[in-house]
Design a protein that fits this description.
Blueprint: E1 10-11, E2 15-20, E3 23-33, E4 37-41, E5 52-57, E6 66-74, E7 77-82
Antiparallel strand pairs: 1-3, 2-3, 2-5, 3-4, 4-7, 5-6, 6-7
Amino acid sequence: MCERRQYPRMPLTAPVRICYGERVWPSCTTVDMSEGGLFVEIPGHGFQGGEIITIQVCNLEDAPLVAAEVTRTTPEGVGVAFLDGEGETD
């Protein structure tokens, strides 16, 4: 099987908050991260590919909101790609 990822993944367990419209998931956990995105455990999420969400690391003072596109979904969570270079939103 051929590796299609542009950036290598590294394991990373960190608490994050995800926002999508008016919905907020205040306590999710990352599984891994790369320069281009990450995978977040969020069972029962209901996301579909192409949706734009924001992610913020919890318990980190002044953590930016990062815009990301859902690129992969599984029953356990979602894979997302960061948007707009660093992906920081206003």
